[in-house]
Design goal:
heterodimer, A: about 50% strand, B: mainly beta, six-stranded mixed beta sheet, 11 strands, about 0% helix, globular
């Protein structure tokens, strides 16, 4: 069974440029999460989707970050414009979701470097 | 606000020795997870602990949960080099809009050497 797929794996951009990350969750998983992991720290939740609905985006900096999951499967996380402090690893995770609390499975992450 | 603290943050172990990583959290939790992360890799789920007194073991790793003390431990028995990684505990609180939200500890960087 394929795991959570993310692309790109690495991205280097200059500050003020836009950037987008893509995630394909495990087949059948209704819940999708985007996390931010700074160097030497644990992941922090940015946004959680139940199917196509963002049910918790309280930690998403909405002035520059946006996310979508239009058909309830793949998701895209965008930053525009990127700042130096956005350099981090962006992790996508998925779980079965619904009324069942299930283990979250993480993708390999996208490592972003903003110059 | 839920806070999760791990200690130690850095652990250098000799092979064949035993040691314990501690995870304290600040509020009532529904689930506690242990994850492993290798350098440059993603997080791999190790254990899910659901109730007070829960104990799970896999190979040289054993995790336990004491919900009254708000404490989980990850015990390493007879460490081997392959266990070198960063270990995270994560607490899930299912109240209100925080349903399914994981709050992670800072991570414990484990290095096992001969």
């Amino acid at each position: 069974e394929a795991g959570v797929v993310q692309s790109p794996r690495y991205k280097i951009i200059e500050k003020k440029q836009p950037v987008a990350f893509w995630c394909n969750p495990i087949s059948g998983h209704n819940t999708l999460y985007w996390y931010l992991q700074n160097l030497g720290q644990g992941p922090e939740l940015l946004i959680r989707y139940e199917n196509e609905e963002a049910v918790d985006d309280s930690q998403l900096p909405k002035d520059r970050f946006s996310a979508e999951r239009l058909k309830g499967v793949d998701s895209t996380l965008k930053i525009q414009p990127a700042e130096l402090g956005d350099s981090a690893v962006y992790l996508c995770a998925s779980s079965l979701g619904g009324t069942v609390q299930e283990t979250q499975y993480f993708g390999p992450g996208t490592r972003l470097l903003v110059l | 606000e839920l806070k999760v603290e791990q200690n130690p943050l850095f652990l250098s172990m000799q092979e064949e020795k035993n040691y314990t990583i501690y995870c304290n959290y600040s509020t009532t939790s529904d689930r506690l997870y242990w994850y492993r992360q290798d350098p440059g890799k993603s997080l791999e789920s190790l254990f899910v602990l659901l109730s007070n007194g829960a104990v799970k073991q896999e190979g040289r790793l054993m995790a336990s949960l004491d919900t009254k003390a708000r404490l989980s431990t990850l015990h390493i028995t007879a460490a081997v080099h392959d266990l070198s990684a960063t270990y995270f505990c994560a607490v899930e609180y299912a109240g209100g809009t925080s349903y399914g939200k994981l709050t992670f500890g800072q991570g414990t960087i484990l290095t096992v050497h001969p």
